[in-house]
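Late entry, pyridoxal-5'-phosphate complex.
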Amino acid sequence: MKYSPDYIANLQPYVAGKTIAEVKKAYNPERIAKLASNENRLGCSPNVHSAVSEAMKVVQDYPDPASMQLRQELAEFYKQDVSRIVCASGSEGVMTLFTRAFIQEGDHVITAGATFIGFLVLANIQGANLQRIPLTEDFRFDVKAIADAVTNKTKVVYIANPNNPTGTIISETEYEWLLNNIPAHVIVIMDEAYFEYSQSFEEFPDSLVGQPENVIVFRTFSKAYGLAGLRVGYAIGDEKWISIMTKIKPPFDPSVVAQFAGIAALKDRDFLQKGLEIVESGRMRLYQFLDTMNLKYVPSYSNSVMLVFDSTLKAEEFTQNMLERGVILRRLPGFGLPNCVRVTIGLPDEMEFFEKHCAEVVEA
Ligand SMILES: *Cc1c(COP(=O)(O)O)cnc(C)c1O
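Prediction complete; structure with ligand written out below:
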């Protein structure tokens, strides 16, 4: 008996970055800086702590399946109708609703060669005919090649903007060009997990302005709001997509704790701003450092910067040496970039720690 189709049986298990406990046990370094998973090193808003305590008073009850209060806050914040928003357990939760609802076996789905693995896995679980268009030489989504690959059978184009792990974007000009050069029957996913970090760049497109019916936007509280462990994200788009995604949602996702946390996080603009400033200045400082070290990197629009080495071996040795010194970074063979390493921008003292050890490792 064949219980799973091959496209499920042949999936590779997800390999996460090393945990702090694992690194401590293996190498016992003087301190540890976890710069591997694009988390917010500042933590989350203190208001979230109080909201979570409040939520604890009602955890014996099932949460509001409509996440109405959270959706209303989001609707007000983005000046959208509440019927255009669905919340789920992280943007991966939202992505799961989307792929289950709209991608079936054999459906033609286009994305980039090196992009967010979560989407690739979810599309593969549905048995999609997934076409991955190689990135441009400067590690960007190739919008021309993507448009060329679209046929009258193509159902979905997935774009992470900014992209993970490269930190690059498609610009407003490219975004508009793409929408004008693919047929309207193709649903375009704009996965904007790092939107808050990139919105201040003039060339970054605001996909909620004049959003066409075939564009659906995914955003999350996991990154800039610092709630990765709580699992809350949302999609914004035409009611015809949102209503179907809502119908198939596990009714009590996201949890009551996640709903309370999301509301509190959204309201604390000062906390958000502080985190954005840390990343912005950390990024500039990291560029300067990498320039003095003659290390190659890709300029980024998110909270991580991708280093590019001459060979897979060099990337591997660098990451391992840094790990033994307590700096946890992310190698990217799973993304098809075996000679690249992703560094999350941490707090100033974590970046100092990174620099100190990076200088020693490179000079050795
Ligand atoms: C981190 C990340 C996500 C996952 O976000 P969750 O809301 O934690 O599920 C989605 N897309 C991209 C591109 C990411 O890097």
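The chain has a mean pLDDT of 97. Will revisit in the morning.
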